[in-house]
Design goal:
Radius of gyration: 20 Å
Keywords: Hydrolase, Membrane, Metalloprotease, Protease, Transmembrane, Transmembrane helix
Strand order of the largest sheet: 1-3-2
Structural class: mainly alpha
GO molecular function, one term: metallopeptidase activity
Number of strands: 3
Largest sheet: 3 strands, mixed
Pfam families: Rce1-like
InterPro entries: Rce1/LyrA-like_dom
Shape: globular
Number of helices: 13
GO biological process, one term: CAAX-box protein maturation
Length: 310
């Protein structure tokens, strides 16, 4: 239903194309621009010149602006309500967003504390209230917009658009999950940890795509992604990560990645799917993940769809 609700005669493929072409084009350009550059050194030069907080704000702020542009395009160019881009429900379920945020935020905090307890030599106390609280304000303002853009673009705009064009649920799930992972290919983590980290990025894309299709909306994905980036940025930073922040802790260990990157993809994410599935009583998994997208028939539905502005 999340995809079906925009599958009608008002869907304009020509108007749909500019956003993904421009954004995906920028990803390709960014990748080739950084291919022969030491990203870690480039980041350090920016921090030395502008400061950590301003560098962070500029990096995250780009995607925050993209979020505003995307929502403007959807609402005023497509004439589609933001609600229908977010959910198939009559209104956005904020309880779902907060539940997902709290669940993953709590898990992230607990695991970070356990790692700090088990391996204190791998961390430094980085907390400086004079630097932390300005960063906290920047993070609270920008990170939810940054993560919302990624969700609205990949699990919203692309998932719905490709689903309408292909009349499939599985094809957009595969395409958006892989492109979500590829978007992170220029991150310094990839150069430091190696290509195996892409398993985590693409696996996360599949997890969030499955959540969106099964729950018929973006709410759980929005909450998870916001918690992942916000809580992570506030708790731990490192010299080799995409987010270098005035966080509470700094990871000073030598980074490495092996098959342990499979653990969240093969263990943690399935557990989360089980929790979400039980709580929200998900059924009919096969049809929701691999079935066909049906033509929207308003006489058979009770929700407002594209063309009804919220």
């Amino acid at each position: 239903m999340y995809i079906d609700q925009i599958n009608n005669k008002k869907f304009n493929f020509i108007l749909y194309l500019p956003i993904p072409l421009v954004f995906l084009g920028l990803i390709v350009m960014n990748y080739f621009a950084t291919e022969d550059v030491n990203v870690e050194e480039m980041m350090q030069l920016m921090i030395d010149k502008l400061g950590t907080n301003l560098t962070f704000a500029l990096m995250v702020g780009q995607l925050a602006v993209c979020c505003v542009i995307l929502l403007f395009w959807v609402k005023f160019i497509h004439g589609q309500s933001i609600r229908s881009l977010t959910t198939s429900r009559k209104k956005v379920d904020w309880k779902r967003i907060f539940f997902s945020f709290t669940l993953w935020g709590t898990f992230t905090t607990i695991t970070t504390l356990i790692l700090f307890y088990l391996s204190p030599e791998s961390f430094e106390i980085n907390y400086d209230p004079i630097k932390f609280f300005p960063f906290l304000i920047i993070a609270l303002l920008l990170i939810p917009l940054q993560t919302s853009f990624e969700e609205y673009f990949f699990r919203g705009y692309l998932l719905q658009g490709i689903g309408v064009v292909t009349k499939s649920r599985l094809i957009p799930l595969i395409i958006t999950s892989i492109t979500f992972g590829v978007m992170h290919i220029a991150n310094p983590e990839v150069g430091k940890l190696g290509p195996i980290i892409m398993v985590y990025y693409i696996g996360t894309g599949f997890f969030l795509g499955i959540v969106t299709l099964m729950d018929e909306g973006l709410e759980l994905a929005l909450g998870f992604h916001a918690a992942n980036n916000l809580i992570g940025a506030l708790l731990v930073t490192a010299d080799w990560t995409a987010f270098q922040t005035h966080s509470i802790l700094k990871d000073v260990s030598e980074p490495s990645a092996d098959y342990d990157v499979l653990f969240p993809v093969l263990v943690i994410f399935p557990i989360l799917l089980f929790i979400f599935g039980k709580k929200y009583k998900w059924t009919n998994w096969k049809d929701k993940l691999t079935g066909k997208v049906h033509e929207y028939k308003p006489e058979n539905e009770v929700i407002n769809t594209i063309g009804n502005h919220d």
